[in-house]
Specification:
The structure is a single chain. By secondary structure, the chain is α/β, with parallel strands linked by helices. The chain contains twelve helices and eight strands. It has an eight-stranded mixed beta sheet, sandwiched between helices. Strand 7, helix 8 and strand 8 form a beta-alpha-beta unit. The longest helix is centred in the middle third of the chain and has 85 residues. It starts with a helix and ends in a 16-residue tail after the last helix. The chain binds guanosine-5'-diphosphate and magnesium ion. Guanosine-5'-diphosphate binds next to helix 3.
């Protein structure tokens, strides 16, 4: 089946990427496969779905902020690659998705390449653009490009560099992409330019990126970075620039999210005063290290979250899908039996009535005239045969009707996202050849149950292996700035 092949291919490609970037997670894909098999056996998972492809496996870190604030320079330094062009002109007006490659050299691919890459759900961006700018959704390439780079820093994560932010000059599509990226990101670095602290671009960034994010549940994932602070070294009171910037942030209502001030030593203007130079570089190095740490931490959290998802999905099957199907089977059976019992009672009552009316109970043999013939062979065989057919047909169409009715009622109570899945499971359990009297949902055989049990054992092992591979120094995980799931 085409759908299945495609799914299989995507899963293999996923495994291939993971093999290069995170071997523990590669094994996790195997467990997702087991889960897929169990769930599909229950009729819950649809043929073109897979639990493995529901989660983004790679955490997304986006770099947004004002025009010419050193975003691309920061990215290049972080990766140790001259990946992005930098400069004071608007050099790169596209969003650049950067991910790891095992190959030697950097490659640039059109935005559409994102479509087939299981690492990244940005292809839906096409739809988002289409909504605000009809006709432009097809031109994802005009807004987004993909670069693959062999920097080991990229293993297990995806970065996005963005064009400078300037709300007036921006087309709605660019703003729309920015919003989408913010939604998808696990960490958002918002850059500001210390060289132009009062610029209109900065105000736009404040209003669009900062103000719009205030009410978010995941506002912890934003880091606010005042970059290029080396240029303030010449001022009488350099700290005042940072303080003024923080005040400007606070004025927009910002309370969550951390602020940093950094500069890039290579791009910076030399600071003459030695003491000042020391003070500046110390602060910048500290903050840069803290930012890098957050970037690593996001990746660790994501790995744990994926394993957590695996367990959650297994629990979901057992604690929600299984009982729902049981309930379906029960109401279906009760309703069919009740209706049929009622019909049988009615028929019996009819016969009783006829027999009373015919005087059977007064000792006379009821005479139904010509109809009596029908109770003699060969007519009786014919009548009996067609009666069985009609009753059978009635029975099966009743089963089907009731099943549909019950399924619709139960499905109305689940989330839109899962409705088709539940309907699939209900329908698989009420196929005409399934006995009305079975209590165990289809797919809940021993094989299905052992599958889930194995997934659960695997989860424990994976957590152990992740613990070993990341070997947290104690306390590091208990950082209060762990972003919530968005
Ligand atoms: N003085 C100084 N200049 C910087 C710093 N970081 C970047 N630049 C320069 O600022 C300009 C814009 O940088 P770029 O990375 O292209 O900014 P982007 O538009 O935000 O990507 C370039 O000429 C960089 O060399 C910094 O920390 N200090
Ligand atoms: Mg740039």
């Amino acid at each position: 089946m085409g759908e299945k092949d495609q799914l299989g291919q995507r899963l293999s490609r996923l495994e291939e990427h993971l093999r290069q970037e995170n071997p523990v997670l590669q094994k996790v894909v195997q467990s997702f496969r087991i889960l897929d098999r169990v769930s599909r056996g229950m009729g819950f998972l649809l043929p073109d779905q897979s639990y493995a492809l529901r989660t983004p496996w790679w955490p997304l870190i986006s770099i947004l902020g004002t025009y010419s604030s050193g975003k691309s320079t920061f990215l290049n330094t972080y990766l140790g690659y001259g990946l992005q062009t930098t400069g004071n002109q608007a050099v790169d007006d596209k969003f650049t998705v950067v991910c790891y490659t095992g190959q030697e050299e950097v490659r640039v691919l059109p935005g559409l390449a994102l479509d087939s890459d299981p690492r990244f759900p940005l292809y839906r961006i096409g739809g988002a653009i289409e909504e605000v700018a009809p006709g432009e959704g097809q031109q994802v390439d005009a807004y987004v490009q993909l670069k693959t780079c062999p920097s080991p820093k990229l293993k297990g994560k995806i970065l996005i560099d963005s064009p400078g932010f300037d709300a007036d000059a921006q087309r709605t599509s660019t703003l729309r992409i920015t919003d989408r990226i913010v939604d998808l990101s696990d960490l958002v670095l918002v850059f500001f330019d210390a060289r132009h602290p009062e610029s209109g671009s900065m105000r736009d960034t404040l209003t669009h990126l900062v103000q719009n994010t205030l009410q978010r549940r995941d506002s912890n994932k934003f880091l606010y970075i005042l970059n290029q602070i080396d240029v303030t070294a010449g001022e009488d009171n350099p700290e005042e620039v940072f303080a003024a910037w923080q005040r400007a942030l606070a004025q927009t209502g910002l309370t969550a999210g951390r602020t940093y001030s950094i500069y890039d030593p290579q791009a910076a203007v030399p600071i003459e005063d030695e003491a000042l130079q020391k003070r500046f570089s110390k602060k910048s190095e500290e903050d840069t290290r803290a930012i890098y740490q957050r970037m690593e931490q996001v990746q660790v959290e994501r790995a744990y979250r994926i394993v957590g998802m695996l367990e959650e999905s297994a629990n979901h099957l057992e604690q929600e899908v299984f009982p729902a199907v049981r309930q379906f089977l029960r109401s279906w059976r009760r309703r069919v039996l009740f209706t049929e019992g009622l019909v049988i009672l009615l028929v019996l009552a009819l016969f009783l009535g006829l027999s009373i009316w015919g005087g059977y109970w007064e000792g006379s043999r009821p005479q139904f005239g010509i109809f009596s013939q029908l109770f003699q062979p060969p007519w009786s065989y014919l009548i009996f045969g067609s009666l069985v057919l009609v009753l059978g047909w009635l029975h099966f169409s009743l089963r089907r009707r009731v099943a549909r009715r019950v399924a619709e009622r139960l499905a109305a109570g689940v989330s839109d996202r899962e409705r088709q899945n539940y309907l699939g499971a209900f329908s698989k359990n009420s196929k005409w050849w399934r006995s009305l009297f079975r209590n165990t949902p289809v797919g809940w055989s021993r094989r299905g149950r052992t599958g889930l049990k194995r997934v659960r054992q695997d989860v424990k092992r994976y957590i152990q292996e992740l613990n070993d591979s990341y070997a947290h120094p104690s306390g590091q995980k208990a950082d209060s700035s762990i972003p919530e799931e968005g």
